[in-house]
Amino acid sequence: MLKAIINAKIVFEDNIADDLVVVYDEHISQIITQDELMQFDNIETIDVNGAYLSSGFIDIHIHGSGGADTMDATNEALQTISKTILSAGTTSFLATTMTMSKESIVNALENISDNTDKVDGAKIVGVHMEGPYINPDMCGAQDVNYIQKPSFDIIDKYSNIIKMITLAPEIENGYEFIREIREKYPHIILSIGHSNANYEKAIKGFECGISHATHLGNAMSGFHHRDPGVLGATLNSDITCDVIADLIHTHKATLELFWKAKKDKLILITDSMRAGCMKCGEYDLGGQRVTVKDGMATLGDGRLAGSVLKLNIALKNMKENTSMSLIDVIKSVTSIPAKKLGLNSGRIEVGLSADMVVFDESFDILMTIVDGDIKYLRGK
User: Fold this and answer.
1) Is 238 a catalytic residue?
2) In the UniProt entry, which residues are flagged as the active site (predicted)?
């Protein structure tokens, strides 16, 4: 049965319209006026009372939420993550692995392969492998004991679900690995991260096939006017990048600088670990103990260990602390990541998947729709 969302402020790519109706089933079938809607019979209308309607949010870097982690390698864990993040407006995500033993990574990938189509909430649209091919000097919260040299042992078997790999190009055989990935698996996005490369080595990585940068400014060589590092190389290139806009990983002034430099190349992520949407306390990330206090997740030595950020709060933080417009911030979690991943979603447009979210002026999520089904309704 067709449904129609009425009385919404619809966020399109270049404008916000309050006089149109979105008609949909599993896909968006029509965008019409209220008068045209009157011509339809047997259509269910959903009145959102002036709230905003946008395409559903896409998180390309999330380890866990709701007490579960991708590396748990169970259907229950993926189901928990999938359902929990609906309340943040997320309708699609890359299940993100991290630097652990080869066996643990393979178990996680096998589990995702088996259960991608079995989750009931936000859709799993692939895997983001964060590591294990990284620089130990920039391991961040990744366990240095499990860092590996680049290898196709894992990639070849799971290339159908792997959509992104974060790696350090300067490690042994890094550039050769990047070139081979681009040749064998051009659909896999290669992202520079956990890298201590200098400017020249980073640029060489881009020339070999890296097209993205992971959590810009974090776990990478920083900017110095005589050595611009990975950060400078990213800002001075046309590759896309993602940012953890929790005001902990990145200062609000830096967020504004990143926005001015990257514009439509900027994607917001959560990098959430299992404590996302949970109370403060003790958790684990990749087998390491993590303390969550005052919205900050840290290892015992004080290093940041992912985040507990929700994607709708990332949007709110960017809107309140940068010059980004509402359309700009919405694009950073919809059309820009959708285009990067080649998804049939990311815009309110006829023919695309009916992945949509309804939210208010404070970015509180009122309703989340996945493939035309209401999966989250605030208060229900």
Assistant:
1) no
2) 271
